[in-house]
Amino acid sequence: MTIAEKAGDLTPRELSDIKEAEAKAKREAHPEAMGILMYMSQEKGVSYADFEQLKEKVEWTEIHGAAALTRKTMWFVKKGCRCPYSYGKQQVSAVTFPDWFLDMAKRWLNSLNLNDQDKDSTFPNCVNLNLYEHGDHQVAWHSDDEPLFRGKFQDTRIISVTLGAMRKFQVGLKAPRRGGILKPEKGSMATFNLGHGQVCTMEGLFQKHYLHQIAKGTTRQARINATFRNIVEHAAGCPLR
Ligand SMILES: O=C(O)CCC(=O)C(=O)O
Ligand SMILES: [Fe+2]
Questions:
Q1: Residues 138, 188 contacting (CB under 8 angstroms)
Q2: Transmembrane ranges (predicted)?
Q3: Is the CB of 138 within 6 Å of ligand 1?
Q4: What does the pLDDT average to over 56-84?
Q5: Is residue 234 part of a domain?
Q6: 87 pairs with which residues across the strands?
Q7: Mutation choice for ligand 1 from 212, 223, 224, 229, CB with most ligand atoms inside 8 A
């Protein structure tokens, strides 16, 4: 059962936005894109002290767009993994999960009942952290469909945790690139406010059929987001391949 199938915490507005996107998916004849693909919850285990600790302790890498700095990132992976991660043309090396971060993450995701113990662990084996220092920082329309996750071919689960400022997270059906630019299908977009302590998942074949973005906003406050993922196809050169 996906986390989304257990969902009960969506507001009527959020539910109707998802339903609308699903109806659109049906019209576009993407049968696999149907079903509830997102889950939202508010987690008490996420604290402002965590936010401060991450901001100070993480050695953030700057991600630059065409002209400006768009955000700062960190790519943590499970011990032994060496898979790099690419942000457009920028590639960053893997950093092993520090113990302090794993302790924090297990507290955040406690209510999802993931198994973090044995070889059948369902706990994510990597995470991308983003630091948006203010409303000008953003991530443009994209899907997390890198070969590492095989999200175009099999069910994947990305679990996003927000700390700090609230930002608008938008999703929409994939459309062919126009002028080299990725943008969702007209009329298919839904917007969710992700605030401190909010968990949001993208499941199933979400990355195959949908795009997502954090749009620019007006806030002067910083937001940190952790998107936990699962590498299922380790990169060439990674000892876990
Ligand atoms: O900040 C967010 O909520 C989304 C981040 C994201 O899409 C990513 O890291 O790929
Ligand atoms: Fe993403």
A1: no
A2: none
A3: no
A4: 94
A5: no
A6: 90
A7: 212
32 within some domain: yes
Structure tokens at 65: 């767009």
237 within domain boundaries = no
DSSP one-letter string for 11-29? -HHHHHHHHHHHHHHHHTT
What does residue 234 show for φ and ψ, rounded to 5 degrees?
-65, 150
Query: How many domains, in total, are found in the chain?
Result: 1
Q: Does residue 128 sit in helix, strand or coil?
A: strand
Average pLDDT over residues 140-155: 94
CATH number at residue 155: 2.60.120.590
Domain that holds residue 201: 4-113+124-229
Residue 12 lies in a domain: yes
CA of 127 to the centre of ligand 2 (A): 11
Q: What is the pLDDT of residues 176-199, one digit of tens each?
A: 888 888 999 988 899 999 999 999
ipTM for the complex shown: 0.99
